[in-house]
Each structure stands twice: as C-alpha cells, then as structure tokens.
Specification:
Layout: E1 4-8, H1 11-26, E2 36-39, H2 43-49, H3 52-64, H4 69-76, H5 80-93, E3 97-98, E4 104-105, E5 110-114
Parallel strand pairs: 1-2, 1-5
Antiparallel strand pairs: 3-4
Length: about 120
C-alpha cells in the first residue's frame, strides 16, 4: 500500500473526510483507509511552508533515507541552523519523522496536493 500524504488548502474538506469516516463506522460498513491530510488555510501559507528550498530538502531526504540533521545540511550545502529549523517544523507538520536515534526521514512515497478555489 502506498503511503500518500494529502496536502490541501481547504479546512472544509478535512471536516467532510472525518464526517464520511464517522458515517461508515456508524452504519457498520467498513471505513475507508484513513486519509493522511495536512491542511493549510490558503495557498500563500502552503507556499511559505513548502518553499522550493524546503521541497528540495524533502526530495533529497526521501532519496537518501534516514539522516542526521547535520548530514542533511552537509548534503544540501546549507547552514545547519536553518536546516534544523526547517526539519523541526516539518516534524511538527508530519512531513518528516524523527527516529529514536535522532535521525530524520521522509516516510511518504507521494505528496498529493489539492487546491480548492
């Protein structure tokens, strides 16, 4: 099964997904697999959180596998403090997972974005 993170700019869509899952449970039907959703209030917020440099960081980390923040910063040729700040934010958002050994990794195989008008 593919691990896909759904990124959205609509909070209403998240509420609808939760309602649908609850409805399936209440009617005794098998619920659909849970959606992994990251919501932003608007497009500027999404673009700020996933700037081109941060997107590159996610791609490189996914390709490399688990790394320390220091090793990631070295691979990217970026300042350790800035990479550490970005990684900490990504861990909070669920884009990056942090292991017990302190290494970080991207567990998503795909990120699907939906922008609602």
């Amino acid at each position: 099964m593919s691990k896909t993170l759904n990124v959205r700019t609509s909070a209403q869509a998240d509420a609808l997904d939760r309602f649908e899952a609850a409805w399936h449970l209440a009617t005794g039907r098998t619920p659909p697999p849970p959606l992994q959703v990251l919501s932003f209030p608007d497009l500027p917020g999404l673009l700020k959180a996933l700037s081109p440099a941060r997107w590159e960081m996610l791609q490189r980390l996914r390709a490399a596998g688990p790394l320390s923040v220091f090793a990631l910063a070295k691979r990217l040729g970026r300042d350790y403090k800035n990479v550490h700040t970005d990684v900490a934010r990504f861990v909070e958002m669920g884009l990056v997972a942090k292991g017990d050994d302190g290494r970080v990794a991207v567990e998503w195989e795909a990120v699907r974005m939906e922008l609602r008008l």
